[in-house]
User: Fold these one by one.
Assistant:
Number 1:
Amino acid sequence: MSYDTQPAASHFIDGAYVEDTDGTPFEVIYPATGETIATLHAATPAIIDRALTAAKRAQKSWAAMTGTERGRVLRRAADMMRERNHDLSVLETWDTGKPYQETSVVDATSGADALEYFGGMAATLTGEHIQLGENWVYTRREPLGVCVGIGAWNYPTQIACWKGAPALACGNAMIFKPSETTPLCALKVAEILHEAGLPAGLYNVVQGMGDVGSALVTDPRVDKVSLTGSVPTGRKVYAAAAEGIKHVTMELGGKSPLILFEDADIENAVGGAILGNFYSSGQVCSNGTRVFVHRDIKEIFLERLSERLGNAVIGDPMDPETSFGPMVSERQMNIVLGYIEKGKAEGARLVTGGRRLDREGYYLEPTVFADVTDDMVIAREEIFGPVMAVLDFEDEAEVMARANDTEFGLAAGVFTRDLARGHRVAAGFEAGTCYINTYNDAPVEAPFGGSKNSGVGRENSKAAIEHYSQLKSVFVRMDDVEAPF
Ligand code: NAD
């Protein structure tokens, strides 16, 4: 079988594809079959240096352009991404194994939304004027300089754009290191940005494992680091960035609660729980994997959930009818299988699923455990796979305390017909991104991010601008300077 998935070269630096075969080779595996679809080389120190040098050189003149000029490039890139949605979606499916049914409506489109949104915003970025009697201060909103983006493997196109778009809008240069598991899509983002008119050196992609990420984070030429990844990686990257007093955005993991009250619309609650556990085969950071179901609706919930899971079309991710694909890698599949065994051993009731599918590729069944208790490992640790833990509850105060009893704080959701309760519960959640009668929406207009161990900073929306720019205060005196001597 031949693929057109092998990129022209491993890296994209200073406006062009670049290869260095001295770098450690690594393979890109198609998760639906286990076949190798590309071989890339991890960045050598020479490649990392080349990317940093290009970014540092290009950033100043990009920052000197007007916001309108910068924004025009981003908006052109957004249009190109939409025009090429089909090809980009197919590549996202090769990279991740997620069904085309998902990638064709979520990945390049969400990346394009970010480019369009921040492209439109670039011209509106201003400082302010502060009058102090006859004297005054004005603030300049300035870029940070060279930003490093480090991606996870679940949304490679989206993450490349969610970090790149606000960084570029604010006048920074970006060096993006994709996850070594899904390295292909970010290269296309770089290609499109440059075709859209981005000057060379402003969006560079370098490949590699954690050591390449670490070399970027610790380089003194880097001013900001934005990571999407797990909490343990976040701890390391945050600490390394702190050494150089660098700005950070940390988008980390979660074990988010989803509370279904007895008055919830059952079909919507089941739909929310499906979206919050099985979309992208459960490989979504904000998933509501601790599903607290009121005792009065537990049996009907489990019944309807099992029935609807029976409608999942599991198979070839390229088939537009397929709605549930494989895990991203054999490694991730085995991690999830390990958690399923733990769940069984801890005494949770396996309602449905729990097995690897008897076919090529890394397919797991959508899995639901009921009678899960708060202390079980499957209720405490992020699994990052299609495993839902259903926990029972009886009253609001009790469930709120249990929902918040976690080190994580990425997302949380509630289904109820009682609006006052919905808002009260949302206010009580210790989480950055909350949902009432819906789950896992992530429009570019709204801030996205976590509290507690799930992260620092926010992506998307006007809030992201604060994390990719800084204010300079300029004091201006109109009268004489008073000095003591
Ligand atoms: P990971 O933490 O293993 O890796 C993330 C990235 O960090 C990779 O590119 C990796 O190469 C790099 N990395 C690893 N060690 C590093 C180091 N010492 N210095 C610099 N970079 C280093 O995460 P993953 O397995 O790729 O992704 C899954 C995790 O990401 C889950 O925990 C998930 O919840 C989280 N995630 C969070 C969000 C969010 O927005 N909050 C979104 C998607 C995924």
Number 2:
Amino acid sequence: MNQAIDALRALLSQPQLIVITMHRDPDADALGSSLGWALYLRRQGHQVTVISPTDYPANLRWLPGMETVLVYEENAASRKICQQHIEKADLICCLDFSALSRLKDLGKLVQDAKATKLLVDHHLEPESFADLMVWDTGAAATAQLIYQVIKKLDPALFADARDIPLAECLYAGIMTDTGSFRHASTTPEVHLAVADLMRTGFEINRVHRLIFDSSPLSRLQLLGHALSKIHVLHEYRTSYMTLTAADLELYTSSAGDTDGLVNYGLQVEDVVMTALFVERRGEVKISFRSAGDFSVRDLAHAHFGGGGHKNASGGRTSLSLAETVQRFLAVLPEYQSRLQSV
Ligand code: 5GP
Ligand code: MN
């Protein structure tokens, strides 16, 4: 981290053209860390463009600076503008992902760009495309790493209300990635970082309500529908849910509507692993969650071309929904003893 900070400090001593990008289907950590970093860099006099590969959830629209975010795949014009920004950038910051495939079509543009590349991430096993890396799998969120970076660059931050927008962005990322401070990743350092952010005087309750208590009714009905057909496999201490393209259409689901839904599968007693299979745009997106020492990162990586963290991972297949579930069921015996010993 210190080496990267020294290099960054030197690089940022002159005004730079900077692009910040994040993983596809961005969540509050991807967007919160990106927008927080953008706020900080703009204040230092840099020209910053934030690019999301895909559309983002409606409950994150309030994040400070969101109106400046370009969505790469929105239309031909946005693709062109994003491409131009990437080609002329001095620095490209890759936040909350470690494999270029997580950028979809944007990955190739970033790979080919002449810019210096900075990776800030907490996922396992980064690819080696970045020149500078702030990478710590022990961090609860990328927003926590951005907090550490900007505190090193400017220790005086967060002393007053001037930094409320920055604090809200980083808090949104840390709070959601720790599951509201309940995952094992919630260390004393996490609480100390949040305590520091709170010195600005931002309203914690407002952020929680904006993120969690602002769902369209259809999203809650989609949740109810998914829960009503949950499968529990007691012999594997596993549960899973499926959503078909028709389900999503029936509940007029939009970007982010299925985020967080997978976590409900872990609330079933004695269940230590759960999966959610969502059929969308000709592919099946899978989310895995686990408790304790069982690694869903390894399962996602070995069988579904995915990755993530030990207790939260994802992947995707181009198989049908039924075939994807069949594959999942077929690999479970391989993991039975590990699931039993959690
Ligand atoms: P979610 O289930 O919330 O989409 O993702 C859970 C975790 O797994 C996140 O940390 C996310 O970055 C990671 N993840 C989700 N989908 C994929 C994927 O297709 N590939 C990889 N490498 N990681 C993924
Ligand atoms: Mn994250």
